[in-house]
Design goal:
Blueprint: E1 2-3, H1 6-21, E2 30-35, H2 37-43, H3 56-71, E3 78-81, E4 86-91, H4 96-113, H5 127-145, H6 148-157, H7 165-172, H8 182-195, H9 200-214, H10 218-232, H11 236-245, H12 254-261, H13 263-266, H14 271-292, H15 294-310, H16 319-330, H17 339-356, H18 361-365, H19 369-374, H20 382-392, H21 395-402, H22 405-410, E5 415-421, E6 426-433, H23 436-445, E7 452-455, E8 465-470, H24 481-492, E9 496-507, E10 530-541, E11 544-549
Parallel strand pairs: 2-4, 8-9
Antiparallel strand pairs: 1-2, 3-4, 5-6, 7-8, 9-10, 10-11
Length: 550
C-alpha cells in the first residue's frame, strides 16, 4: 500500500476544484492510497480502517475472502473512510479516465460524510488516529491478560448494535431555542394531557386561546394567557415549580449502564475491561451513521460522479468506456436492491421536482394526472433542495418521505413475487405490486434496524439486570440469545433476564364460519397460517440459560 503518484494526485486536485465549483463542501486535505487486491482482502474485515484493533474474527474473514477471491476474482474500484483527513483506497490498475470518475465518486462520499448531520459526532476527531492508540492499548492488555481480552471483545461486540446512537446525536445537536417558555410546553404537554386529561375539544380551545393571545403584544402574551390559567387551576404554579425542580433523567444505553453500574467492573482487578468496552462502544458509534445512510450516501456519490464526469473535458474519447462502467454500477435491477441505482435516481428525481416546484402544497393536493405531468413553476431550486436533503436526512426519512407513486411509476418499479411452477419445477418471478406503498415497505424492511432493548429498572432487583425487548413485529434470532446473554452476564457480574416475544404456534383459520348442525367446512387448498405470539423471559444465571412463559 502506497500513496498515489504526483501525476494522479494532480488529477484528484483538479476534480476537487470542479466539485467545489458545483457546491460540494469538504476539507482540502485528503490521502489517497494505491492498494492491491491482497491489501483490500486484509483491510475489508477491519472496515478499511488500517489502524483498527486486532481480533481473531478479522483473520477468519481474511481467509474466507481469499477463498472467495480465488473462485470469483473481482476488482473494487474504490473505498473511502470517514477520517480526518479523509482516506481513500484505489486499485492499482486503474487508467486515468477511470480515476477521474472514481475521484468524483469519492468526493461525493467525503462531502456526505462531512455535511450530513447523522455523522455529526465524527467531525471533531481523527478516528484512524484514535484507532491506532486503541489498538496499542488492546495489544498491551493482550500481552498481560491473554485470551481473556478476546473474550471481552467478543462479549462487547455481541451488544455493540445497542449503543445509544441517537442519544449521542441529540447531545451534539441540541434543539433550537423555543419561541415560547417551558411553562407553555408543560401546560399543553403534561398538565392538560397527563394530569387533567382534558378532552380533545377543550384542548383545541386552549390552543386557540393561546394563539389569540399571541396576536397582541408578545411580551405580555404569556402573562395574559396564564392569568386565566391561574384562575381556573390554582394548583398549576405549584405543580410547574415541582416539575422544573426535577433533574431530567439521562437515558443510558446498555453499554453505559453496565460500565457505570456493574459491581463486577468496579473491582480494581477488573478495571482493564472498561478500557476495552470504551473502545468497542466508540467504534460502534463511529460506524452507525454509515449503516443508516447507505442508500443516500451511495446515491449522492453516484449522482455526482455522473454529473461531474460528463462535464469534464479530460475524459474526451472515453465516453463509451464510462457508459459501460457506470451502467454496471448504477443499473436498476428488476429484482433486488442496488443502493447506488436507487439513491442516484431519487436525487435526480428530487432535483427535477425542486426545479419545477412540485413539492408545493398545490401540487401535492392535485390528483389530476395531466396537471401533475405538466406542472412546472420553473423555480430552478432543485440543487438547493437536494443539498438540504443530503444534510438533514437518513435512509429511513429519505425513503419514507420521497419514495412516492410518481417516482415508482417513472422508473417502472415493482415488488416481485416468487412462486413455484409445478409443471416445470422451476421458480418464477412475477410482478406482485406496482404500488408505491408496497415498494416503499419492501425497501424499508431491508434497512438496518437493531432491536429496541431497554433496561427495566422496576424489575431489576437484588442485583439482577432485567432487559425488556420492545417487540416491533420481528422476533430476536434465537441462536444468538445464549451467547449474547452469556456475555452480558459476564460483564454485569450477576444474573440477567431478557423479556421478549416469540412465536408459540401457527394456527390455520377456517376458510369460512361453520354452520350449526352441519359438518365443519373443509377445503383442499392450503390456508395461510396465523402466527400466535407469546411473551417469554430468558434467564442467564451461572452460565445456564432457562426460559419461562409469561
Amino acid at each position: 500500500m502506497e500513496l498515489i503518484d504526483q501525476h494522479t494526485k494532480r488529477i484528484m486536485e483538479g476534480c476537487k476544484q470542479r466539485a467545489w465549483d458545483q457546491g460540494l463542501r469538504f476539507e482540502d486535505e485528503s490521502l489517497e492510497y494505491i492498494v492491491t487486491n491482497r491489501d483490500l482482502l486484509e483491510l475489508s474485515p477491519k472496515i478499511m480502517i488500517p489502524t483498527l484493533y486486532d481480533y481473531w474474527v478479522h483473520d477468519v474473514e481474511v481467509m474466507k475472502g481469499k477463498g472467495k477471491y480465488e473462485l470469483y476474482p473481482s476488482n473494487p474500484y474504490e473505498t473511502v473512510i470517514n477520517t480526518r483527513p479523509a482516506i481513500s483506497f484505489y486499485n492499482d490498475n486503474n487508467p486515468d479516465w477511470l480515476n477521474v470518475m472514481i475521484f468524483y465518486h469519492v468526493l461525493g462520499h467525503i462531502d456526505f460524510f462531512q455535511n450530513n448531520l447523522y455523522f455529526r459526532h465524527t467531525w471533531d476527531y481523527d478516528f484512524a488516529g484514535e484507532a491506532l492508540s486503541d489498538k496499542r492499548v488492546i495489544a498491551k492488555l493482550r500481552s498481560e491478560k491473554g485470551r481473556w481480552v478476546d473474550y471481552v471483545i467478543e462479549f462487547a461486540r455481541g451488544i455493540d448494535n445497542l449503543v445509544g446512537y441517537f442519544g449521542e446525536l441529540s447531545r451534539l445537536n441540541p434543539p433550537p431555542p423555543l419561541s415560547h417558555s417551558k411553562r407553555v410546553d408543560y401546560y399543553f404537554d403534561i398538565f392538560l394531557q397527563q394530569i387533567k386529561h382534558v378532552n380533545t375539544s377543550n384542548y383545541i380551545k386552549e390552543i386557540e386561546r393561546f394563539n389569540q393571545c399571541q396576536l397582541g403584544d408578545e411580551a405580555l402574551c404569556e402573562d395574559a394567557f396564564f392569568s386565566e390559567v391561574d384562575r381556573r387551576h390554582p394548583e398549576f404554579n405549584a405543580l410547574y415549580r415541582k416539575h422544573i425542580e426535577k433533574k431530567p433523567k439521562v437515558r443510558l444505553d446498555l453499554y453505559q449502564f453496565i460500565v457505570e453500574n456493574s459491581d463486577f467492573l468496579a473491582k480494581e482487578e477488573n478495571q482493564w475491561i472498561l478500557s476495552i468496552l470504551h473502545v468497542i462502544r466508540k467504534t460502534a458509534l463511529f460506524f452507525q451513521p454509515q449503516i443508516r445512510t447507505k442508500i443516500m450516501n451511495e446515491g449522492w456519490a453516484s449522482y455526482w460522479h455522473e454529473t461531474l464526469f460528463l462535464s469534464d473535458n479530460r475524459i474526451n474519447g472515453h465516453e463509451v468506456d464510462f457508459a459501460r462502467v457506470n451502467a454496471g454500477v448504477t443499473a436498476m435491477p428488476r429484482v433486488g436492491l442496488n443502493p447506488y441505482a436507487l439513491g442516484m435516481r431519487m436525487f435526480y428525481f428530487l432535483e427535477e421536482m425542486g426545479d419545477k416546484g412540485k413539492y408545493s402544497y398545490d401540487f401535492q393536493r392535485n390528483q389530476d394526472i395531466r396537471v401533475r405531468k405538466d406542472y412546472d413553476r420553473k423555480l430552478n431550486a432543485g440543487k438547493a433542495f437536494i443539498f438540504d436533503i443530503r444534510e438533514n436526512l437518513s435512509d429511513f426519512t429519505f425513503l419514507n418521505t420521497f419514495l412516492d407513486q410518481d417516482f415508482v411509476t417513472k422508473n417502472d418499479l415493482f415488488v416481485a413475487g416468487k412462486r413455484l411452477n409445478e409443471e416445470r419445477m422451476v421458480w418464477e418471478y412475477y410482478v406482485k405490486s406496482r404500488k408505491a406503498a408496497d415498494y416503499r415497505k419492501m425497501i424499508l424492511e431491508s434497512l438496518y434496524h437493531p432491536p429496541h432493548i431497554e433496561i427495566d429498572h422496576t424489575k431489576s432487583n437484588n442485583g439482577v439486570l432485567y432487559l425488556t425487548h420492545h417487540f416491533e413485529g420481528k422476533p430476536l434470532l434465537k441462536e444468538f440469545i445464549p451467547n449474547t446473554m452469556l456475555g452480558i452476564e459476564f460483564l454485569w457480574g450477576a444474573p440477567v433476564k431478557l423479556e421478549t416475544t416469540e412465536v408459540v404456534s401457527r394456527v390455520a383459520p377456517p376458510s369460512r364460519p361453520s354452520i350449526p348442525g352441519l359438518p365443519a367446512p373443509t377445503t383442499d387448498r392450503p390456508r395461510k397460517r396465523e402466527i400466535k405470539w407469546q411473551r417469554v423471559v430468558y434467564t442467564m444465571e451461572d452460565r445456564q440459560l432457562t426460559k419461562e412463559k409469561l
